[in-house]
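Board notes (copied after class):
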Amino acid sequence: MQLRSTAVPLKELARVILVGKQSYLFLIATILSFAFSISVILSTIGLMDGFEHTLLDGLRKSSGDLKLLTRNGFFGSEKEVELVTAHSNISESTHIYQSEGFFMNNTLSRGVVIKGIEEESFNKVTGLKIQVAPGEMAVGSELAKQMRLKEGQSAVIAFSNGNRGLKSLPLLKRLKITKIVNHGIYEKDLRFIYIPIEDLRSYLNTTNGFNLVFLRLKNRTMPQVEKTLQEIREKIQNPLILKPSWDEFSSFLDAVEIEKISITIVLQLIVIVSIFNIAAFIIFISERKSQDFFLFRALGMNAKGILKFWASMVVFIWSCSCLISYLLTIVFDKLVLKLPFLQIPGQIYVLGSLSLSLESKDYLIVFSLSLFWVILVTSIGILKLKKKSILYGLRKEFS
């Protein structure tokens, strides 16, 4: 009695074909190698995106989404600022009085950027949650680390303006550290100090002065930030200058984006090489179990049934590899990147540590490309099997 192709379920065919330890080991090795190659690409994209997102997040913590300054040094009136804050996408703004000085503790000293802030509005714009009372300050985490300081201790800041009778000498003020701030960016954590804006005005003999305005947007996506930036720039005039928070790192971010694309393209070679392992697995099983295949053919399974079996096997390998690669990226992010010897020098790479940042579209692109290459490479070998007739198999059976 002749069997139809539907008389032999694919799972039964797989059970017969994959009998033997070597077949299972080859299948497992094929899946793992393909999963590793996919995870390499995902990790590379994740590192690049993670670097970019961490950098942008740190910059927003230090200066909001947009920053407004003036070529005159100080803003003349609130009306200059109101022209900008009137935009529909601006949700919060805060006035900053920024100056420079020297931070000193025992025999150690370092040049710092001193930001006089209005506590409530500053926290709304940046999300840093800094609380500083008169006579207190918040310092960057890297500065506190290098100066060996903790919360509750005090240190001296040397301001450029001296006392009225000693204007040629710096003004020294000892302030208490009430918070250690972590921006996530090495230079910011090493240089920034926050004190109440009224204290800074008092130390520098300035009345109601401010030279920076930080702005927070309602819609904070990159395209919307750039759109808002362009719209406001068309309205304001000299001497006002409006910049995005990432302005000082714009060239650096462009380079990261280009590198991400180029490296992803190059790493496709790793995927293609691992796909040859899948092709080798198909050839290995086809040759090793050729008698079983042609026996099924002789019993009634047509060529389409065999092709359907191999197509299902390829999809199964791809699906398992995608799942394992996803798990590998989690392990890489949560465990491997946290190892001490993988902590990067912040003074060189801006950030002190790395992390993965992967979105759904990243997984979709990488998994889709890997499926494309799998179908392209393996279809050649599978179609080659289709050309072999039952007579060829029977000859091999009795040879």
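Comment from the instructor: The longest helix spans residues 21-63. The two ends are 26 Å apart (CA to CA).
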